Every structure is written in C-alpha cells, then in structure tokens.
C-alpha cells in the first residue's frame, strides 16, 4: 500500500514535467513565455485529432510552435498570431473560433434551443390552464351530476 | 385539434430523418481532411531555389500561365512513394506537374529519389524550411494543389493521387481547366 501511494505521488510529481514543452524555447521575459503558452494551448494541431500544438509531437505541430515562438519574439499580438494561423489552416486551427457567418451557429444555436424549450413550456402550461375552466355545456352537465348525487 | 395531433406526431419523425441524414454524411467524411483556405486565392508570393540547381531562384510566377498540379512531397513520406509511379504515368500523359519538395532531409536524398524513381515534375522547387508550404496551409505530405492559368488555387487533394482519385476527382477538374485554357489560347 505504501509503495502504491509512493508511486502515485511520484507520477503526480513527474506529470507536469512530461506535459512540459518538448523543446525549450528561450524567452526574454515572463510576458513572452505566458503569451507563447497561452497561444500554443489555444492553437489546434491540424494533423491530429483534437490536440493542441503544445501537446502534440506531430511535425506540423512543432512547425506551428516554432512559428508561434518566432512571432511572439517579434512582438506580435495574440490576435495577429491567431489570424495568421487561421488564414492558412482555417477556423479548425483554433479552439476559440472567431465570430464569422459560418461559426455564428455556435452562439445563436444554444439560445435558439432555449427559446424553443421556453415556447413549448409556456404553450403546455397555457393549455393546462384552459382545460381547468369548463365550457357552458360541461358546467350544466356537472350541475346535473351534482344534483343527481343529492337525490 | 386532430390536425395538430398529426403535426406533433410527425415533427419527431422529421427531426429524426434530418439527423440520420446529417450523421450518415458525417460517418462518410474523413475528419482528417481539412478544407483548404487557399481555394480561390492566388498562390502566395515566394522565392524558392531549384532542387537540382540551388543557385536558381524561382518565384510565384512559375506557378501561373497554364493549368497545373503542384505536388507537395518528401522522401520521408511513405505515401509519396506510393503515389510516385502514378504521377510518372500522369506526366507521360502530358499532365503538367510542379514538385514542391517539403522539408526534406537533404537535397542529395531528394535528387537521388527522383533519379531512381523517375521525375514526373516539369519544375522542382525546394522548400527546406517549410515556410512556403505553411503559407499554402500544407499540414502533411503528399498534398496536391490544382492551380489555374492565373495562378489561382482551385482545389486541394490531401493524400495520395491514385487512379480512383484522378478519375473521379482531380482529373475532371484539371481537364475542365485545360479546356478553358485551350479555348482562350485559340482566340
């Protein structure tokens, strides 16, 4: 048990190291390092199925990391770098899709589904309330029945 | 009321049918195939050395003037080997193909490959850094771009060019551009 716990602890300690960048990139300051980390985690490897370029060993992921590094060191903004990648690889390359005509469905579809749900709920509630009130014919029939009970 | 009841009964069926169609289409498509952002756009400006003669520099001008294929390849790419004999065959049939050697291990290795397997390319460009391929949105090899006579990218095929791909996909598109080009030439 103690050996098991120790090995779990060891894995937990080593895990962040395994996750670290495959090639170290020298930065001039923390701001550049953070920008690079932020971007490589947000940019998606085009060759892989669902992996960001920070985590992937694919050749193209390394190329895009190198390019990101180059652009970070050249003082480009996040937006400029993401735009550069999207221009070449399409919206697929970013995990934070930009708002365009074709991606706008991601924003309006959930709202639309909620609106439809609300509409259905309201119409169901209304119908139930209507059913509670009796028509003139039904009221007479009810009176008849109640009258009959008294007899 | 009965009219509404029929509608309520059929709405789930309609939704189900639409979903079956959408999901079946998703099942047939390859998630690894990305749509190219280059379609309808001109080839980006570049300067690349010739594979055989590194002193000679070519620019984007070599990729216009007639319809052509731009084949992205490398010696480290097994699928490129698989398609190479078919590219030789297409070249024999008169299809104009330009080769873009993509991040290869060495110039000597690439030249050796062409000497032993045959050279189907009218022109051989060497992109050692991969910058031009990056500008084209290349994310693997082989990839084949169809370019019209104005140097506009019309289509991109990801993966090997084989008889099936050529007959059903690339070939008809290339022939169509050739017909346009030839009729314009005659005028």
UniProtKB/TrEMBL annotation, chain A:
Keyword Chaperone: no
Signal peptide segment: 1-20
InterPro entries, per database record: C-type_cytochrome_biogenesis (IPR051263), CcmH/CycL/Ccl2/NrfF_N (IPR005616), CcmH/CycL/NrfF/Ccl2_sf (IPR038297)
Any single GO BP term: cytochrome complex assembly
Domain spans labelled CcmH/CycL/Ccl2/NrfF N-terminal: 9-145
GO MF term list: metal ion binding
Pfam families noted in UniProt: CcmH
Segments traversing the membrane: 105-125
Family from the record: Belongs to the CcmH/CycL/Ccl2/NrfF family.
Main function: Possible subunit of a heme lyase.
PANTHER family with a match to the protein in the record: CYTOCHROME C-TYPE BIOGENESIS PROTEIN CCMH
Name this protein carries in UniProt: Cytochrome c-type biogenesis protein
UniProtKB/TrEMBL annotation, chain B:
Taxonomic placement: Bacteria, Pseudomonadati, Pseudomonadota, Gammaproteobacteria, Alteromonadales
Domain Thioredoxin span(s) in chain numbering: 37-179
Keyword Membrane: yes
Sample GO molecular function, one term: disulfide oxidoreductase activity
Transmembrane feature ranges: 6-24
Biological process according to GO: cytochrome complex assembly
Pfam families listed in its UniProt record: Redoxin
Main location: membrane
Membrane topology listed for this record: Single-pass membrane protein
Record-level GO cellular component terms: outer membrane-bounded periplasmic space; plasma membrane
Annotated family: Belongs to the thioredoxin family. DsbE subfamily.
InterPro entries: Periplasmic_diS_OxRdtase_DsbE (IPR004799), Redoxin (IPR013740), Thioredoxin-like_sf (IPR036249), Thioredoxin_CS (IPR017937), Thioredoxin_domain (IPR013766), Thioredoxin_ResA/DsbE_sf (IPR050553)
Subcellular location: Cell inner membrane
Gene source species: Idiomarina tyrosinivorans
Protein's name according to its UniProt entry: DsbE family thiol:disulfide interchange protein
Sorted UniProt keywords: Cytochrome c-type biogenesis, Disulfide bond, Membrane, Redox-active center, Transmembrane, Transmembrane helix
């Amino acid at each position: 048990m103690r050996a098991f716990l120790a090995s779990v602890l060891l894995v937990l300690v080593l895990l962040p190291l395994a996750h670290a960048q495959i090639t170290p990139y020298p930065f001039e300051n923390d701001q550049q390092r953070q920008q690079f980390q932020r971007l490589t985690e947000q940019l998606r490897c085009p060759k892989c199925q669902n992996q960001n370029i920070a985590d992937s060993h694919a050749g193209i992921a390394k190329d895009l990391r190198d390019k990101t590094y180059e652009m970070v060191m050249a003082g480009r903004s996040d937006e400029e770098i993401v735009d550069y990648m999207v221009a070449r690889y399409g919206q697929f390359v970013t995990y934070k899709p930009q708002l365009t005509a074709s991606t706008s469905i991601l924003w309006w579809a959930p709202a639309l589904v909620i609106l439809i749900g609300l509409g259905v709920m309201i119409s169901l509630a209304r119908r139930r309330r209507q059913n509670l009130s009796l028509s003139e014919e039904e009221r007479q029939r009810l009176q008849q029945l109640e009258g009959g009970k008294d007899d | 009321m009965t009219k509404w009841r029929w509608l309520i009964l059929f709405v789930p069926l309609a939704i189900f049918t639409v979903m079956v169609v959408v999901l079946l289409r998703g099942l047939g498509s390859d998630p690894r195939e990305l749509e190219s952002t280059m379609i309808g756009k001109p080839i980006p400006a570049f300067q690349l050395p010739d594979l055989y003669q590194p002193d000679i520099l070519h620019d984007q001008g070599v990729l216009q003037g007639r319809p052509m294929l731009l084949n992205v390849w490398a010696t480290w790419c097994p699928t490129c080997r698989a398609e190479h004999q078919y590219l030789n065959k297409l070249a024999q049939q008169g299809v104009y193909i330009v080769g873009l050697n993509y991040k290869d291990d060495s110039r000597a290795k690439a030249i050796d490959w062409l000497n032993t397997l045959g050279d189907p390319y009218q022109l051989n460009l060497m992109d050692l850094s991969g910058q031009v391929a990056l500008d084209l949105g290349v994310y693997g090899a082989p990839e084949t771009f169809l370019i019209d006579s104005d140097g506009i990218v019309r289509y991109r095929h990801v993966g090997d060019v084989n008889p099936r791909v050529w007959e059903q996909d690339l070939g008809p598109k290339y022939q169509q551009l050739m017909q346009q080009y030839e009729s314009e030439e005659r005028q």
